[in-house]
Amino acid sequence: MFPNLVEHLAMGDPEIAPNVYLSDCRQIDGRTGRYVYTPYKGYAHCFNNPNFRQAFFKTLEDVYATGVDGIMTDDVAYFGEGHGCTCKYCREKFQAETGYTLPTPAEWSKFYGDYQNKVFLEFLRFRQRSTEEFHRSVNDHFTNLGLKLLRPNYTTTTFSTTPTANPFEAAGDLWTHVFQENMFSTVMQTAWLSWSCDAMHRSSMARKYSIDPMSMFYPSRYDNYYFSWALSRAWEHLLMATPEGGDLNDVELKFASYEKLHRRLAGKADCMAEVAFLEPRSSMDFTSDARESTCRPLSVWMQAATLTNRRGAMLFESDTLEEWLQYPAVVVAGASMLSDELLELMKQYCQAGGKLFIFGKFGIYRPDGSLREHPEKIFNFTFDLQDLAPAEAGKFIYQNQTVELEAVKENLAMANLSGDYKIAAQGNDGTIYGVSAMGDKVLFLTGGVTARRPLAVHYGVLISRWVGDQNREHPAPDYAADYLQKIPGSILAAFLDTTPQLKVNASDYLATAYKSDNKEYHLHLVNTENILQKPPAMVSHAFKFVNFAENAPACNRAFSVEFKLPAENFVPKQITACSPEFESEKVLEYTQQDDLLVISIPEKLFAGYLNIIIK
Fold first, then answer.
1. Contact, 209 vs 267, CB < 8 A?
2. Which residues contact 574 (CB under 8 A, 6 or more apart)?
3. Could you tell me where in the chain the CATH 3.40.50.880 domains are found?
4. How many other C-beta atoms can be found within 10 angstroms of the C-beta atom of residue 247?
5. pLDDT tens-digit series, residues 473-504
6. Most exposed residue of 5, 26, 229, 455, measured as fewest CB within 10 angstroms of its CB?
């Protein structure tokens, strides 16, 4: 398909400009001073290198000449496990921008990973600025050519550190679509819960920039295609399904026919969030213990909200007070690095009537990596944070609601408290895990909840589908769903202290709700029964999503769905249900008391997915 490709590859190291070779453009590993390799078994090239940029943009002009609709600049990234790039162009640019000099390979081990070293943090930020600037230069390039192109971009997960310096959010204003890649080799049955949290992030990012969110899956059969499709509908995402090595055209046509009648809301969906979660981006990227102190604590509360069907959205560190005030409550989990401005914003949010739930390490680092004493004093109390230690069982008491706490192996506790506060969580031995302040507007827990180590949350199991036996089995990971619903879920419910927006009176349903532009409400139910497996079960890509199999028997139980209308004096004209599993819409019975609808779901209506439409 590509003339002269073989000859080009046979050159090995082509001359891309007079006396300039492609090898001159490679990223350099700070540890070794040698070339950086990518995970794709090739060399990584540096986009701060002017020779590479010139050749790259010339290639783009050739691509544009073919009449493409858009371009996704995939893998604009620094490789080398976070140690690239230290080529001469990066060294010169870093020194010009910061005034600092990058160390030699002999000094690198003392430099890299020292998060209290301002120069190291500047290096991490330099990498992110460089990737962001390159993406922006691509847009400038085609705009200056008089072109207007689609610019989709993605990330697999955002709730992690970014050793590649991916500027997915920093350059968010460039993208025409934002999507998540639900990875090919990730076992779907283990990952759907963490994927659901990432979907919340993409939806919030899409709303921020008035674009569409999307999800990419790799289904291989009818049942896992239908499950993927149902998740994307529940998230109100566009769907891209890529059946690697197979053909699901007939299956896709069936669901495409359904979507002609029942279109997605996508970027126009109002998720009616009951709570927002601050994404602690600085803490993820610029602190030493990010995985345990930031990523997992955030996932605990997001997964607890998902499992209890609490409607959620994301806030970003750059968001304004006005944007915070769109939400009645905000969860700040694992935000160990915060700016003074963001701390002040949180105080103003509470003073303006918002409720703030803080968990774990909070604001103990400034953006330059220096330690901050008593960031909590903005809420009119102070305490000393004790080191990690085992904790006894205890009680959480907040606004006359009590949750029994289990023992925690790794726990942060409070000591030497002073100021205006009330104890909210305490071990049976008297150790304090949490307090409320500012008239219960602030709930601050340092511990009392398992939030470290993998057993705290659900992540996807990776089994490579590129090599060997694709369907080989793997032991099921630690099971956290029951705990997440029982304790974090109950604490979250007590904190919100409101009638849930959406309640399904049957177990094991992922439920979401959205409002459309024309004032209709769309509720989505996804049957997740028996998908998350408990040890000693085995998991694999061969797992059958039995409720999503073709012609699966419909559920033989009736149940109800309670929906709290966000609009007062709304009287439905009709409530109907639709699904790819049956023809035409079914009229559902319901009762209404004030702003609460109780919708009856009869037995034998559906097996896997149901869409309820309230007009």
1. no
2. 587, 615
3. 275-456
4. 8
5. 999 999 999 999 999 999 999 999 999 999 99
6. 5
Model pLDDT, residue 33: 97
Task: Find out whether 46 and 26 touch, Cβ atoms under 8 Å.
Answer: yes
Q: pLDDT of 342-400, one tens digit each?
A: 999 999 999 999 999 999 999 999 999 999 999 999 999 999 999 999 999 999 999 99
State how far Cα 257 lies from the chain centre. Answer: 30
For the full predicted model, state whether its pTM sits above 0.85: yes
**What does the DSSP 8-state code read for residue 294?**
I
* Domain 499-614, CATH: 2.60.40.1180
Report the candidate in 575, 554, 560 with the shortest Cα–Cα distance to residue 504.
Answer: 560
Going by C-alpha positions, the residue among 189, 243, 170, 109 that lies closest to residue 463 is 189
For the chain, give the mean pLDDT. Answer: 95
Burial class (CB in 10 A: 0-12, 13-18, 19+), 448: buried
How far is CA 73 from its chain centroid? 21
- Answer yes or no: are the C-beta atoms of 24 and 46 closer than 8 Å: no
% of the chain residues with pLDDT over 90: 92
Cα–Cα dist 245/394, whole Å? 53
Neighbour-count burial of 542, counting CB atoms closer than 10 A to its CB (0-12 exposed, 13-18 middle, 19+ buried): middle
Q: What is the rounded distance in angstroms from the CA atom of residue 174 to the CA atom of residue 176?
A: 7
Q: ω into residue 536 within 30 of 0, thus cis?
A: yes
Rounded distance between C-alpha atoms, residue 262 and residue 345, angstroms: 41
Strand order in the sheet with 502-504: 502-504, 559-564, 596-601, 590-593
Report the alpha-carbon angle 225-309-404, nearest 5: 130
What ranges make up the beta strands (E) of 125-274? 152-155, 177-181, 212-217, 238-241
What is the rounded distance in angstroms from the CA atom of residue 24 to the CA atom of residue 408? 53
Half-sphere exposure of 347 (CA within 13 A, CB side): 13
Please provide residue 293's backbone torsions phi and psi, each rounded to the nearest 5 degrees. -95, -15
Q: Are strands 401-405 and 394-398 parallel, antiparallel or unpaired?
A: antiparallel
Q: How many helices (H) and strands (E) does the chain have?
A: 15, 30
Q: What is the dihedral of CA 510, 515, 517, 518, to 10 degrees?
A: 110
The neighbouring-strand residues paired with 180 are 155, 215
Q: Report the 10 Å Cβ neighbour count for 404.
A: 11
Q: For residue 271, is the peptide bond before it cis, meaning its omega torsion is within 30 degrees of 0?
A: no
